[in-house]
């Protein structure tokens, strides 16, 4: 698809990214078949092909309206469309450029700006999110606190660093505790790196890209020091955070120093499943409730292509993962999406839970804190992180 990007964007690295992505699209529409929002509305502008066209118009300087912004806001960034595109169009990279351009051209209403600011300010700050998590637990919106359990005591030559996370460190600290025990069991010391905090995804997706870049640079500096000191890999057990960190080179594309540093970070970034499938832990006991369902988060499945890996590992440890229909469909969590597009998010969640519970599992296991929080609010069975299932039989 030809696009005459207007100046000055055309002369930037972000403009070059957009041009490259657009030129790969042949406008065939095959991607619409796997797009959750297109399935919900049937509107071409709520599918990837329509959104690509809307972004092209915005980049060329055509008049755009709030409706354009609405159709882009409704996108989950789930990347299911990329898995069915025969031309290899990296839609999410174009979407990031397009959203930033549209955000500059279409001023949001002040209630919308205030709401977005409040989400960014509260969610990524541990001191502010803690009272909200406590309140959410009281009214049954967030699962009850789970004890973190013992810390590993083994000393190993292999060392890796673990992202603590912002929301997860408050709402589900036991995920990280379980991860360190499982890595201990396979001979790896897993510790947190001082100075690392929120990945910046919320800021970036809520119209505050400079704030996101500041967080990215801070994390890159801290992780660079950890790698220089002999750290083997950066482990991120929240696949949504990992997806954004994987995009750091694009986020910092106009900062040559940090873009290069970001590429080194991405080369060392691993989801725990990537490590554990190469060196599977040995089970010490059989699972209590083997019949389970696995929700492959979009950020695990569609970006890094790790769909099925978690179910495979758990099956090898004695679990019995039930088949789940339409695994490509997003659950509706998608970062702050469930807060900003609650109607779409609830409808997608209902469909996802119906698929996940069709096999009558005793629990549902996921790879992302956002999916965990969103699905747990309505799930009829307990929601857990898959590393907990490994910890149960190995730890
Ligand atoms: S993104 Fe891919 S599948 Fe979708 S219209 Fe373009 S070329 Fe076709
Ligand atoms: S990222 Fe997801 S919601 Fe957005 S266009 Fe692609 S498939 Fe649809």
Structural summary, described in words:
This protein has 395 residues and is an alpha/beta fold. The chain folds into 3 domains: 9-105, Fumarate Reductase Iron-sulfur Protein, Chain B, domain 2 (Orthogonal Bundle); 145-275, Rossmann fold (3-Layer(aba) Sandwich); 283-394, Rossmann fold (3-Layer(aba) Sandwich), CATH 3.40.50. The protein is 52% helix and 7% strand. It contains 22 helices and 8 strands. The chain has helices at 13-24, 36-41, 48-59, 66-73, 80-84, 91-105, 110-123, 126-138, 167-171, 173-185, 201-205, 209-228, 239-246, 248-251, 256-267, 272-276, 298-301, 309-316, 337-340, 342-357, 369-376, 386-394, and strands at 158-162, 188-192, 234-235, 269-270, 291-295, 320-321, 363-366, 383-385. The strands form 2 sheets. A 4-stranded parallel beta sheet has the order 2-1-3-4. The chain has a 4-stranded parallel beta sheet with strand order 6-5-7-8, with helices on both faces. The model has no long low-confidence stretch (mean pLDDT 94).
- Element pattern in H and E: HHHHHHHHEHHEHHEHHHEHEHHEHHEHEH
Largest sheet: 4 strands, parallel
Strand content: 5-15%
CATH class of the largest domain: Alpha Beta
Tell how many strands the DSSP assignment holds.
8
Number of helices: 22
> Cofactors and ligands present?
iron/sulfur cluster
The assigned structural class equals: alpha/beta
Rounded average pLDDT: 94
Instruction: Report the radius of gyration as a whole number of Å.
Output: 21 Å
Could you please say which CATH topology of the largest domain applies here? Rossmann fold
- The separation of the N and C termini measures 53 Å
CATH architecture label name of the largest domain: 3-Layer(aba) Sandwich
Q: What is the overall shape?
A: globular
């Amino acid at each position: 698809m030809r696009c005459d990007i207007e100046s000055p964007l055309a002369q930037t690295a972000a403009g070059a990214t957009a041009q490259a992505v657009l030129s790969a699209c042949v406008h065939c529409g095959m991607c619409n078949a796997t797009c959750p929002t297109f399935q919900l509305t049937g509107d071409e502008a709520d599918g990837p092909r329509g959104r690509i066209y809307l972004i092209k118009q915005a980049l060329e300087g055509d008049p755009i309206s709030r409706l354009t912004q609405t159709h882009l806001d409704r996108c989950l960034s789930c990347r299911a469309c990329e898995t069915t595109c025969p031309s290899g169009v990296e839609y999410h990279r174009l979407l990031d450029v397009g959203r930033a351009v549209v955000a500059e051209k279409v001023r949001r209403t002040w209630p919308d700006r205030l709401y977005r600011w409040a989400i960014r300010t509260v969610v990524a700050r541990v001191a502010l999110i803690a009272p909200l998590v406590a309140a959410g637990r009281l009214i049954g919106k967030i699962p009850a606190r789970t004890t973190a359990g013992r810390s590993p005591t083994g000393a190993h030559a292999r060392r890796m660093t673990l992202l603590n996370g912002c929301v997860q460190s408050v709402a589900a600290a036991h995920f990280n505790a379980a991860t360190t025990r499982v890595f201990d069991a396979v001979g790896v010391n897993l510790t947190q790196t001082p100075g690392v905090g929120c990945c910046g995804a919320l800021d970036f997706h809520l119209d505050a890209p400079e704030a996101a870049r500041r967080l990215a640079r801070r994390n890159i500096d801290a992780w660079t020091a950890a790698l220089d000191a002999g750290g083997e890999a950066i482990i991120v057990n929240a696949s949504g955070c990992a997806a954004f960190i994987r995009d750091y080179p694009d986020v910092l594309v106009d900062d040559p120093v940090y873009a290069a540093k970001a590429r080194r970070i991405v080369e060392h970034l691993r989801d725990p499943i990537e490590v554990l499938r190469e060196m599977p832990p040995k089970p010490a006991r059989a699972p209590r409730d083997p019949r389970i369902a696995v929700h492959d988060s979009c950020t695990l499945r569609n970006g890094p292509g790790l769909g099925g890996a978690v179910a495979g590992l758990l099956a090898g440890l004695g679990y019995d993962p039930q088949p789940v229909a339409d695994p490509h469909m997003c659950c509706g969590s998608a970062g702050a999406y469930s807060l900003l597009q609650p109607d779409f998010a609830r409808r997608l969640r209902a469909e996802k839970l119906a698929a996940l519970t069709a096999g009558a599992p005793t629990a549902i296991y996921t790879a992302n804190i956002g999916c965990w929080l969103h699905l747990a609010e309505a799930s009829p069975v307990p929601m857990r992180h898959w590393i907990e299932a490994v910890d149960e039989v190995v730890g």
